[in-house]
Amino acid sequence: MIALRPCHLLAILVATGCASTATTAPSTVVTDRQTIVAAAPAVAPIATPSKNGEVPAPLQGQRGLLQLRDVFELEWASSPRIAPDARHIVYLRRGMDIMSDRRTSELWILGADGRGHRPLVADKSAATPRWSPSGDRIAFVSASDSGAQIFVHWLDTGATAPVTRLTESPSNLEWSPDGRTLAFTMRVPAKAKPMVQMPAAPEGATWATPPTVIDKLTYRVDGAGYLEAGYTHLFVVPADGGTPRQLTAGDFNHPGRPAWSPDGTSLFISANRAPDWEYQAYGEEVFEVDVATGQLTQRTRRDGPDQAPLVSPDGGLVAYLGFDDKRLGNQNLRLYVMNRDGSGVRPLTDDLDRSIERFEWTRNGRSLVVQYSDEGNTKLASVDVRTGKRRVLTGDVGGESIGRPYGGGSFSIADNGVIAFTMTRPDHPADVALLKSGDPVRLTRLNDDLFAGKTLGSVEEVWTESSHDGQRVHGWLVKPPGFDANQKYPLVLEIHGGPFANYGDRFSLECQLYAAAGYAVLYTNPRGSTSYGEKFANLIHHNYPGNDYDDLMSLVDAAIAGGSIDEDRLFVTGGSGGGVLTSWIVGKTRRFRAAVVAKPVINWESFVLTADFSAFFVDYWFPGPPWEHADHYRQRSPLSLVGNVETPTMLLTGEADYRTPMSESEQYYQALKLRKVDTALVRIPGAGHSIASRPSQLMAKVAHVLAWFATH
After folding, report:
1. What is the DSSP letter of 59?
2. pTM over 0.90
3. Burial per residue of 616-650, b for 16 or more beta-carbon CB atoms within 10 angstroms, e otherwise
4. Strand order in the sheet with 520-525
């Protein structure tokens, strides 16, 4: 992924009701002689590539291997919400529907002892579950015949009913402290003023669709497409049903999670309400909104973002995330507290050189629980509000990113301090876990039935020093099932996107499928990766791609030094930022037999003028716009190295990708063709930057990568 940091920049996706527009059409492969419509991916066990590139029969004499079709059997947990009394947990049980080719999201409940595990409502599109303060009801958002609505489920009767009749999709649902009201955010359409007044068409005439006039800086967003006029605002609605009331107004977006004051008179939100907000990547401030009148009072002011406010249980303090903007590519979100009126601002995590991903107050108000990633493993820790003293509670949080081993995950806290969270390890995606004291307890095992008949690849940690400057760099090696240390295996170097992101010791379906095909898979965190501190991440500031190449080659050398890798059968792939590095690598070395470049940036100059958040990329990833720094843009563009490329290189990109647009891949494909390099362009119809968001697309991605590598 070409990611934006911090994640609030992607809130517009929620505000616009972002959903995958992907279709079930097959991938299109463009080669030198013809256009081939690829058949559906094979569902037989994936075969092991031979040294000459032929594909022999599947591995024999072992337990079952993961197959492409197992994508539809995989399940994982997300959004676990523990009841106020800590007796039950509701969560979203996620999976894949083979008939609709869509991801599903069902609301399930289980006891804190792991018993009574059952579906709560008959629904496959549930989102945002929230317990009422008294624990007698659960509110959630789900699709209906009239679009997405807010529903409430009563635990005593088992009844479920919609409490809204909205025309736009709600999000960021939160109960009022007295349980009578629900706050949420929702897009409010705006009527665009026409530029011209056309004469009316005669009755019965068929005229062309009228032109679309675009006058906004950000006019399209990956996943949401071309944006309709409108802004995200804050609403409240009676919890037993009624008419929503809009609290905020104006041509500004208010997309974040709202937070109630304990007395129920105010809501705290973050928003950028500056006149030139479109041009400010990090302009949010914290506002207090009077629920009765809608009056806004600004509570923070600085050059940098202040976001995600949460009010302490006694109402005296507000905690929030932010930083002083230094215009660096990566900047850690730090935790702050202030008095409710905005005075007395204090940082709490200045001594933690990691970005805070999310946080919650404990019921006694003496501490907060924070989530952050450290060297590729996501932690929960308590932070004392008075002293800032920090104590790690647990690790292994995450597992909600199914394809590749990215960070993430979520948690919630009961009134007595018990925590429910998503737990992952390399051998399983997210399950619901409970943390009382001591070691956490894993309550669900959603994939034990699937994995009982499968052998997964084992995962081994790798550390080495970069050949560039001795920096310690980190990675993980997935060994093929049935690994034999006396054999030599082909290696796939799999590179993460971002570039400000991290892989870790988490489950990865794609890496496991490559391992099931007989490859060792090396996934890594070169310089630029998060979870190793700001300095390490910003080693690529205005220098990306650059010496991250040396880190990757050093990690490959370390894997080869282990003795089980065939250095004559090396392959490389990566998506988004990983696609950038893959195309950079084949322009720098010929040691890889084949490469798959997924959703890349090839030409930084064209990218910053066609990507969905141009202002951010120009201001934070480069010293200025391309017309002022043409040499800098060109020197960092993989296109500048295309004259060196001899490696067979396939490109794979979604046709509706507005983060790294298809035009980037097309430039590289045409350049490679003109040089007569063995290449192919795989276009995923309807897919955005998340090219594997639908099950068949995930299968198709893996199948095409393996087919390309097997051919070479």
Report:
1. P
2. yes
3. bbbbbbbeeebeebeebbeebbbbbbbeebebbbb
4. 35-37, 28-30, 679-684, 649-654, 594-598, 565-575, 489-495, 520-525, 472-478, 459-465
d(CA 475, CA 580): 19
The CA distance from 662 to 664, in Å, is: 5
Cα separation, 573 vs 453, whole angstroms? 29
Yes or no: domain 26-70+453-602+637-711 corresponds to CATH 3.40.50.1820: yes
Alpha-carbon distance of 536 to 505, in angstroms, equals 19
701 close to 641: Cβ distance less than 8 angstroms: no
Helical pair 577-588 and 548-561, crossing angle rounded to 10 deg: 80
Closest CA to 348 of 386, 316, 379, 378: 386
Token couple for 374? 């450290």
d(CA 282, CA 322): 9
Of 17-26, 85-94, 233-242, 475-484, the poorest mean pLDDT is in 17-26
Question: Cα(216)–Cα(251) distance, rounded to whole angstroms?
Answer: 12
Q: Which position has the token pair 């081993």?
A: 405
CA-based end-to-end distance of the chain: 26
Using DSSP, state whether 557 is helix, strand or coil. helix
- CB hemisphere CA count around 668 (13 angstroms): 42
Cα–Cα distance between 406 and 255 in angstroms, integer? 24
Q: Which amino acid is at 335?
A: L
101/158 Cα distance (integer angstroms): 30
- Domain limits, the chain: 26-70+453-602+637-711
pLDDT band at 136 (very low <50, low <70, confident <90, very high): very high
Q: pLDDT tens for residues 196-205?
A: 999 999 999 9
| Residue closest to 26 by CA, chosen among 680, 574, 703 | 703
Q: What is the distance between the alpha carbons of residues 687 and 502, in angstroms, rounded to a whole number?
A: 23
- Rounded to whole angstroms, the Cα distance separating 106 from 126 reads 6
